[in-house]
Amino acid sequence: MIYIRLTQVKEVVKSFNQTKTSLSEHLTKYYRANPKLGGRDRKQLADLVYAYYRSYFALSSLEFEVHIALASFLSELDSKIITEICNFAQIDSDKLSVAYILETWKIDLLKAFPHYDLLGDIDKDAFVLDSFKSRTTWIRIRRGNETSVLDEFAKNNVYVERDLELINAYNVKGKFKADTMNSYINGMFEIQDRSSQATLNFFPNIAADDKWWDVCAGSGGKSLMLQDAYRNVKLYVTDVRETILQNLSKRFSKIGLTKYARAVVDVSQPNPLSDQGSFPKMVDGIILDVPCSGSGTWSRTPELLQTVDRKQIEEYALTQYKIARNTLQYLKTNGVALYITCSVYQIENELIVQKLAESSELIIDQMSYVTGVGHNADTLFIARLIKK
What we know:
Layout: H1 2-15, H2 23-33, H3 39-54, H4 56-59, H5 64-74, H6 79-88, H7 98-104, H8 124-130, E1 137-141, H9 146-155, E2 160-162, E3 169-172, H10 182-185, E4 189-191, H11 194-198, E5 211-214, H12 221-229, E6 234-239, H13 242-254, E7 260-264, E8 283-289, H14 310-328, E9 331-341, H15 350-359, E10 362-370, E11 380-387
Parallel strand pairs: 5-6, 5-8, 6-7, 8-9
Antiparallel strand pairs: 1-3, 1-4, 2-3, 9-11, 10-11
Helix pairs in contact: 1-3, 3-5, 5-6, 14-15
């Protein structure tokens, strides 16, 4: 049986072309072409494929079976499948530990994550080792809806665990389809990673009717979180993509949020709000959740580990600085800007923030990484800047 599963992993890897599709889409096509695979088979296959790609830089020089055996251990997959693959690869699974693997197979963590030298002020080795592990789904339950949401999960026999530090964060341990759940359809909870939720701790106390601009709003996750915490905040949202703003409006309407302004704006261009009459001339706060390499989230999309080169990261940094400079001019004196990325590279994070503080009327009030290590979550960067 394990030989068949390993053969399937090889087939998926060999036929995958990451320039044409995502890994998740490729696996879906493989399932359709192999309809005899049951739900448990599909999960096991996906777990092994993702483990392979997460550990590609660290283990790809090894024989395929050894690579998969060690990857399954580092990804903390089911102990039974680890033992079976180790037996097939002639590895004593009882001896396995992180230290044993690093020493026996001479794994260099400096080469286990792309552009290791660019990593920012984090525990680099801990981050790299954690990047081998799978990620679970986190949700944020809107205030006052805890009982209804948790009851529906319980009825679906899905275990949900409340985070010990973040009030509204819950880790979903099983599989579920959000769009079939009444509580999700009615806007009682949102799917949002734990680290993304933790950025709320960096927001200042927001007064009623304060004006906040979500610059690169995407589908509105940060704005929804902000509105849940401060119900009277006035929101202004922009993005360069009309389709994503349409999705944002749908999410806003689910919670009955209608009083906000939105606009399709290219904030990489100078004076981006010059033609936006529905926007104020100055705002009290700015959310700069800028486009980035996404390197803090690559455990979810490990195929990207092989695609982003240094030049692309440098291009992201140039765009990030340009967006920040173009938008911070609209921040009031004593206003707060939150610079956020889901990258772990200092060229996109600390260096951008320091450059902004050196070249404008801003002071760095706080700056840190929101680590996902130990939480089955992504790693983000956030800085709180105050206008002098």
